[in-house]
């Protein structure tokens, strides 16, 4: 059973977003980290890069394979979690506490399209 | 959809909580405790693998040896009994159909151990080329189980179970033994770069041995995930990655198993390739920058494509990712710096040999 955090919204590609005003914090779900297995590397974007919703912004790599990360909401990267460079395994041990990027939303209305915890729970199994 | 097969140990894998995944038509364990832990277990203690998906094909008859010599790149005639040989089946164009192990059981009887993904193709290829040879070819893959015990503690784990001494059983040697009055092929070989054994049995004896070996607390069950990281670290090729219909055994660095001084299917093409110079060469790459190169990623030098990554990992306990890559021979220059394109970005890597790990085989020393 994977943990569903009730404070965030989700993309069907298993990223979560915590929206606060015009900014959002992005990570991957407990279901995603479990499916990946031990994360050994996180390919982070650079601050200032802009992405559209659904666009690839980086990757999470387990020993076996690379999995692309898709930004659930359009925006500009305003911070990346540098701690993941040295401790990528934090995505396994604390997937909701370990954010990957923070963005400034360019289309805040997109938030409505993301999945609520109860909706995401149906696909995360 | 095609039926997914299960090995005789399938129930045990589920009970051990393995992460299962289809591989070459079988539902196989990928990892139990985790690839990293299992990789380390094999390097420092011992790991037990279910490799029952591998195929077994028996060649029987007066022409068994000349037949296998004609189909494969290596020479088996003249080799003493008890030796395990490695050979490669090639097309007339020099591409690889499969790479396999040969167990020379008798003058007239040979067991071939082939890759699971190629069983049907190999069997058909052997049948299609048997004309003129007095041999009987039987695909016994479904009847055999195979387990591999790998790691420095392997011999000390197995000796008390089989009540045998292995001091004169060297790397790439085998014996036909009995366990619980059932026949077992015990082979000192493997696919991890460590000392270890592969055990083949036609009956439930393999399941009995699996249980018995796992009783030893020094042994961890290991999945196909770490089997690949271990073989990669030891610089051993995997069919479909470092070798294929499009990659010749000479390009793959397996020239040691290609005997051009005898006749075999593909010989002329390989001889020509050797005379003209190999178009591509397999090298090791060590990434200088952060990132992990994966199979299929392209390699560049000064903006020009010079090759492709065949396998790549960030291995347990290492700071830099490593890769095997097939490069244009003129660019396969040791210590030169190349770029690997990873998700649109160039990541610098240094060309090196592919012995990322010093193999710990049990060999005869004078």
What does this structure look like?
The complex is a heterodimer of chains A (125) and B (366). Chain A is of the alpha+beta class. Chain A has a single domain (9-112), classed as RNA polymerase II/Efflux pump adaptor protein, barrel-sandwich hybrid domain (OB fold (Dihydrolipoamide Acetyltransferase, E2P), Beta Barrel), CATH 2.40.50.100. Chain A contains 4 helices and 9 strands; from the N terminus they run E-E-E-H-E-E-E-E-E-H-H-E-H. A 6-stranded antiparallel sheet of chain A has the order 1-2-3-9-8-5. The model of chain A has no long low-confidence stretch (mean pLDDT 96). Chain B is of the alpha+beta class. Chain B folds into 3 domains: 10-52 and 144-233, Probable tRNA modification gtpase trme, domain 1 (Gyrase A, domain 2), CATH 3.30.1360; 55-128, Aminomethyltransferase beta-barrel domains (Alpha-Beta Plaits, 2-Layer Sandwich), CATH 3.30.70; 279-352, Elongation Factor Tu (Ef-tu), domain 3 (Beta Barrel). Chain B has helices at 10-15, 35-44, 64-71, 119-128, 154-162, 205-214, 224-233, 267-276; strands at residues 19-23, 26-31, 46-50, 55-60, 84-90, 96-106, 109-114, 136-139, 145-150, 174-179, 182-187, 196-201, 219-222, 280-287, 298-301, 304-313, 322-328, 337-342, 345-352. Chain B has a 6-stranded mixed sheet, sandwiched between helices. The longest helix of chain B has 10 residues, at 35-44.
Identify low-pLDDT runs of chain B.
Answer: none
Question: How many strands, which pairing sense, and closed or not: the largest β-sheet of chain B?
Answer: 6 strands, mixed
Report the mean per-residue pLDDT of chain B as an integer: 96
The percentage of residues in β strands of chain B lies in: 25-35%
Oligomer: heterodimer
Q: How many H/I helices of chain A?
A: 4
């Amino acid at each position: 059973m994977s943990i569903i955090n009730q404070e965030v919204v989700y993309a069907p590609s298993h990223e979560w977003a915590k929206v606060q005003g015009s900014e959002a914090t992005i990570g991957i779900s407990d279901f995603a980290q479990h499916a990946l297995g031990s994360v050994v590397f996180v390919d982070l974007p650079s601050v200032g890069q802009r992405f559209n919703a659904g666009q690839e912004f980086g990757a999470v790599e387990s020993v076996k394979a690379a999995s692309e990360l898709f930004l659930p909401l359009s925006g500009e990267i305003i911070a990346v979690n540098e701690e993941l460079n040295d401790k990528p395994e934090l995505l396994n041990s604390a997937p909701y506490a370990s954010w990957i990027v923070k963005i400034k939303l360019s289309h805040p209305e997109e938030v409505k399209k993301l999945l609520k915890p109860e909706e995401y729970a149906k696909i995360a199994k | 959809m095609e039926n997914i097969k299960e090995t005789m140990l399938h129930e045990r894998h589920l009970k051990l909580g393995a992460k299962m995944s289809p591989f070459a038509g079988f539902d196989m364990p990928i990892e139990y405790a985790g690839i990293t832990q299992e990789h380390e277990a094999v390097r420092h203690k011992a790991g037990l693998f279910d490799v029952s998906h591998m195929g077994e094909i028996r060649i029987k008859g007066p022409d068994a040896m000349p037949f296998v010599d004609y189909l494969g790149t290596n020479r088996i005639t003249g080799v003493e009994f008890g030796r395990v040989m490695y050979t490669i089946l090639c097309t007339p164009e020099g591409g690889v159909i499969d790479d396999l192990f040969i167990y020379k059981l008798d003058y007239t009887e040979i067991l071939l151990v082939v890759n699971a993904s190629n069983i049907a193709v190999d069997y058909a290829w052997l049948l299609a080329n048997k004309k003129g040879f007095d041999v009987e070819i039987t695909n016994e893959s479904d009847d055999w189980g195979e387990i591999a015990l790998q790691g420095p503690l392997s011999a000390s784990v197995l000796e008390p179970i089989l009540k045998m001494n292995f001091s004169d059983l060297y790397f790439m040697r085998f014996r036909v033994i009995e366990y619980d009055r059932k026949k077992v092929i015990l082979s000192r070989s493997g696919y991890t770069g460590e000392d270890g054994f592969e055990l083949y049995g036609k009956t439930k004896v393999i399941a009995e041995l699996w249980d018995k070996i796992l009783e030893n607390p020094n042994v961890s069950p290991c999945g196909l995930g770490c089997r690949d990281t271990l073989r990669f670290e030891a610089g051993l090729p995997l069919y479909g990655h470092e070798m294929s219909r499009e990659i010749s055994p000479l390009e793959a660095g397996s020239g040691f198993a290609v005997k051009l001084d005898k006749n075999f299917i593909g010989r002329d093409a390989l001889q020509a390739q050797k005379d003209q110079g190999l178009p591509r060469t397999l090298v090791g790459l060590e990434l200088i920058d952060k990132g992990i190169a994966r199979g299929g990623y392209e390699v560049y030098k000064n903006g020009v494509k010079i090759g492709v990554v065949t396998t790549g990992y960030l291995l347990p306990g290492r700071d830099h990712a490593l890769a095997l890559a097939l490069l244009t021979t003129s660019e396969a220059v040791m210590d030169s710096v190349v770029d690997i394109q990873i998700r649109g970005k160039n990541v610098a890597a240094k060309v090196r040999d592919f012995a990322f790990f010093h193999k710990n085989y049990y060999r005869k020393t004078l």
